[in-house]
Structure formats: C-alpha cells, structure tokens
C-alpha cells in the first residue's frame, strides 16, 4: 500500500493491492468420493466441470493497518467478501478434494487517525 496523490477523503489517496485466498476446512466423505479417481487439477483452470455453489454463510475477512502519509497517519481498512463460488469435481486437489474457486470483492477505506485543530490533536469525532 502506498500514497498515490490527492483525494477528498482526508486529502490523500492510497493505492492498496489486496491478495486473498481460501482454505478448505473440511469436505464431507461423500464429496471426496466424487473425485477419488480423478486426475489432479492442471496448472491452468479447465473450461469443463464447473458448478456454481451458493454462499450460505460467510464472515468477511478484515485487515486494518496504520499508514504514515504526507498528511499524517491514516487507518486503512480492507474488507474482503466472497461474491461467487464454483467447484470442479472433474479434478482433485493434492489433498484429494474437489477444487473450489472464489471471486472476491475488496472494499478499501481509510480515515485520518488523528485530526489537528486549534493546536490540539484529537481523534476524529465526525459521523454521518
């Protein structure tokens, strides 16, 4: 993440590059059986075998960093939310599970950590 010019949001713009991934916590045995005799997933995603899955429940991931800029310190927050999920049962992962693919949306926001006014430093108090 780096400062990249002016914005109306505190007078500074941040260029934030977020990267995410998923980990499968558990797969039911009947789903593992679907891929037991299938080949390993190739390096490039295949065009066949994908099925869309519903996102039943999720807790978006959140990261907060304090960043120093030319306009003072800012609290930069990134929230990652899954918006689409697909599964491929024509191939298996190295763990013998179906392969899952997730599309994410990253919501980036920032606010000054402190405001300077009338010679005093105080936490921002404005709200909508």
Walkthrough of the structure:
Strands 3, 4, 5 and 6 form a four-stranded antiparallel sheet that branches. Strands 1-2 form a two-stranded antiparallel ribbon. Strands 7-8 form a two-stranded antiparallel sheet. It has 128 residues and is mainly beta. The longest helix is centred in the N-terminal third of the chain and has 5 residues, at 29-33. Mean pLDDT is 88; it is low at 118-122. It is 4% helix and 42% strand. It has one helix at residues 29-33, and strands spanning 2-3, 14-15, 50-53, 61-69, 72-88, 99-112, 115-117, 120-122. The chain has one domain.
Quick summary of this structure?
This protein is mainly beta and 128 residues long. The chain has one helix spanning 29-33, and strands at residues 2-3, 14-15, 50-53, 61-69, 72-88, 99-112, 115-117, 120-122.
Give the helices and strands, then pairings.
Elements: E1 2-3, E2 14-15, H1 29-33, E3 50-53, E4 61-69, E5 72-88, E6 99-112, E7 115-117, E8 120-122
Antiparallel strand pairs: 1-2, 3-5, 4-5, 5-6, 7-8
């Amino acid at each position: 993440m780096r400062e990249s010019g002016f914005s109306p949001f505190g007078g500074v713009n941040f260029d934030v590059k977020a990267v995410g991934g998923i980990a499968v916590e558990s797969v039911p045995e009947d789903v593992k059986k679907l891929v037991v005799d299938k080949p390993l997933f190739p390096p490039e995603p295949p065009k066949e075998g994908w099925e869309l899955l519903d996102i039943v429940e999720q807790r978006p991931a959140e990261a907060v960093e304090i960043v120093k800029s030319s306009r003072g310190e800012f609290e930069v927050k990134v929230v990652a939310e899954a918006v689409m999920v697909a599964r491929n049962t024509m191939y298996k992962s190295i763990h013998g599970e179906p392969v899952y693919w997730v599309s994410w949306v990253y919501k980036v926001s920032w606010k000054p950590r402190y405001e300077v006014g009338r010679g005093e430093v105080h936490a921002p108090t404005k709200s909508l």
